Amino acid sequence: MTPRSRAIVLMAVMAAAAAAQTEASRLTVRSIRVRLISTSSKPLVDIPQGIFAQTLKRKGIALAVENRFDESSVEQAAEGLRGLYADAGQEVRVEHAVSQMPPHSLEVSFEIIQLCTCH
Predict the structure, then answer these.
(1) Which end of the chain is more exposed for a tag (fewer CB within 10 A), N or C?
(2) What is the CATH number of the domain that holds 63?
(3) Strand order in 92-101's β-sheet?
(4) How confident is the model at residue 10 (pLDDT cuts 50, 70, 90)?
(5) How many domains does the chain have?
(6) pTM of the predicted model as reported, rounded to 2 decimal places
(7) Does residue 10 lie in a domain region?
(8) Is the model's pLDDT at 22 over the cut of 70?
(9) Rounded to an integer, what distance in angstroms lies between the CA atom of residue 40 and that of residue 20?
(10) Is 6 within a domain?
């Protein structure tokens, strides 16, 4: 492959990535779901959805139902959830996923996984 061909391919890949990111930013968050996964006899504290929403708002994280989707806000929200559980004295791992809901919406889901405090 010639240097010119590589440059053309690279530009095409970058354009496709930019288009995909632009498409995602046009989508609206329709649902935010939080699932707790307890791994010990001591159950996870259930952080109310309202407290989670207030934390996001206070930290300036733009992840909310009916808002436009911003990919960077998902990791920021996961960090906010880790902080809420740390404040409650529980060590957790937060995993997240984004799935499309036809026609132009997304569901953002978080799994709060309790880390073992075994000794």
Answers:
(1) C
(2) 3.10.20.310
(3) 28-37, 105-114, 92-101
(4) low
(5) 1
(6) 0.73
(7) no
(8) no
(9) 40
(10) no
